[in-house]
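Pipeline run #58 for the internal structure catalog. This entry was flagged by the ingest filter as a single-chain record with no existing model, so it goes straight to prediction. Upstream metadata was stripped on purpose; only the residue string is passed forward. Reviewer on rotation: M.T. Logging verbosity set to normal.
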Amino acid sequence: MSGEVNATGASPRAPRPGTQKSSGSVTKKGDRGAKEKPATVLPPVGEEEPKNPEEYQCTGALEVDFAELCARWGYTDFPKVVTRPRPHPIFVLSSSVSEKPNPDDQRLSGSCSLNSLESKYAFFRPTVQVELEAEDKSVKEIYIRGWKVEERILGIFSKCLPPLSQLQAINLWKVGLTDKTLATFIALLPLCSSTLRKVSLEGNPLPEQSYHKLMALDSTITHLSLRNNNIDDHGAQLLGQALSTLHSCNRTLVSLNLGFNHIGDEGASYIADGLRLNRSLLWLSLAHNRIQDKGALKLAEVLRPFELMHTEVVERRRLLLEKGTQERMRSPSSSRYGDPRTEREKSQMMGISSIALVDKTDKTQTVKTPKGLGKKKEKAGEVVKKEEKSGSGQSPVQGTLKKEDPTKAGKGKVTVPEQKPTKGKGPKSGSKEKRSILLESELIAEATEMVNPLLEPVEHRDGKVFLPGNKVLLHLNLLRNRITEVGLEGFLTTVQYQVQFPKARSAPKGPVGLLWLSLEKNCFSPQCPMYTMLQELMLPRDPISKAKPREEEATAFST
């Protein structure tokens, strides 16, 4: 026993693991060292460490960017980006094909049925479908349907969607949106390209019905579809307030689809209130709702002259006072060089005729110029008049140069570089005065588009103020509601007024009212006399019905 102890004690000192040469001791010491100091474990082949998504720079290729960001966020199974499938054309068998079954065709039919089953199952897999431009294959529209879009997925889209410079539309159908994820989605929209104008959120009912946030004053959305979202009268109230109120108005939204919801008479009244002062919405669909006669009459009322409420009359007076003070503030600076009588006439005629406004501003501009310039411009105008009377084909600019250069070049008092025809400044055929008239008329046209509807010409009847009504709305769809002949009579009165309006007045250029009205499948007979009269009035106004006879004439002429 002592020998054994001595044997063990007499054994030489064990060398360090790194200097051991025998293989057996190396493995034992190596195992012991591995226990003391845990070595770095290499990831298995095919797996990488998760990377920071913020460090990734998107390339503009949605398929690559979306897959990379999903992997960096820790997703192992995520939807693929695929091209949106198109419906296949219907194949019609010709009469020349024999009806006898071919064995090769039978074998092919079995494989085709298998492929069709696989394609059907693939159709329901979560994907991000995209529609591409024909020329450069850039992403134009995005379609997501049938799978829940979470907060993290929206965070991924917030990084990979802004580089898409040609993105025009985003369609989300039954993606399980909540009020929180909708707020995240709305915050994502300003990051996208300025070409994004269409948003479709269908089949996404929200408890708080906060869809009106998509129609904020700073929103750039022009086409919005909110079908099948269980929107009731409360949601319609929020949407109507987003269209317009007494102090705010949406100026970008052009079309709004509210079909297949639960909007009743009260909700339709809120939408009608939003149309009172809105002058941008052209297309509205309220099909497949619960609107009855009361709501239909409110919608028909705002499309013809309606009475202003007391608050609207007060606001109109305030706006008129502001407009008058702004005109008086402008008048002293211009009257320093001009005749105050002409300025007074100008302020009185303000807002009545744009042509008169342009003429008077031209007169004030000629008065403001120095004496030498004024004389030259007058002479230029005289030369233009003489040339127009003589009927010569020479341009006014050329005429002024030939008239003035020999006489005024030697004096050297005032030089007019504007009269020299250059390549970069406007057309040579017109004088600068005519170009300034065109520019000012364009500015006036833009200003009239943005005028508050309360400043439109009004009618005073029995101490009440009547606004002409909304003639900007061109398309109204009320298919499959609960409207009877009472509501139908209200729309007939509206259409009769809109048809007679251009004839009664001096045909002002601008909106003309409804061009398309759908009241089918409601609670009245299609053979109703009022409905027949309404269709006869709307048929000449429908641009599609006008185009069909032209196409038939063209085909008949070609054959």
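catalog note: Confidence is low (pLDDT under 50) at residues 1-12, 17-48, 91-99, 351-449.
catalog note: The two ends are 123 Å apart (CA to CA).
status: ready for reviewer M.T.
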